[in-house]
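Justification of computing resources. Each target in the renewal requires a structure prediction run like the one illustrated here; the chain below, 69 residues long, is used simply to show the kind of job we budget for.
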Amino acid sequence: MDFRVLLTTFGIIFLAEMGDKTQLAAMTMAAQTKKPWAVLIGASLALGRVSALGVIVGSVIGEYVPLEW
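Resulting structure tokens:
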């Protein structure tokens, strides 16, 4: 495992996600439902699935499209 890549990825994604519509939606859902753990689990699962999809698509594209493009 390349921890430099891991930490860089974490930092970039963490900063990019701060204050975006996903965070606002999660705050609203938690406030409305009064079930913060359910919202946390649901939001975490959704973000994990979307990130996995992005990594898979990026890997496939990386195999066929030259990096210079």
